[in-house]
Amino acid sequence: MSRTLKSIDVNPELYEDFKKLAKSYGMTNKDLFGAMVRYFNATKADPRDPKADNPTDAIKALDKRLISFIREQEKKILRPLSDDVQVLTKLLQEDVPKKIGQSQIRTISSAIKPELLTDRFKAAVAAMNNPQPQPAQPKPDPARPGTTSNNPNR
């Protein structure tokens, strides 16, 4: 199978630039030419417009915009939502069991659909159903004002 090679007339200064470019990419002139043709076909970039946006720069700019969007969503939506969930969890674990009776807790627990509960909320509901006793607060020591005593014999 014989191939016919084709040549392209080019300005000598431009040819020297082309050779330097090929060398900088570690390619032969033939390989660089083929890569350039494939690049322009794939990107649809216009080689007559050297000031066209560099795709890499466009991707970096889009990346910055996306990160900025995500940070804004985190600040306006995710963090407040997370804070609300933490408050609700604390209420379920600590405050609600102190303020309502066990029968009301069971009623509330049975009204919550299990498939809607995450592991964190399941733990909160379990804690609500089995409240932990609070440690006794030390009583002031009458013999020494400003101090507390846990010793019942003092």
UniProtKB/TrEMBL annotation:
InterPro entries: BfmA-like_N
Disordered, as annotated region: 126-154
Name of the protein in question: Uncharacterized protein
Lineage: Bacteria, Pseudomonadati, Bacteroidota, Cytophagia, Cytophagales
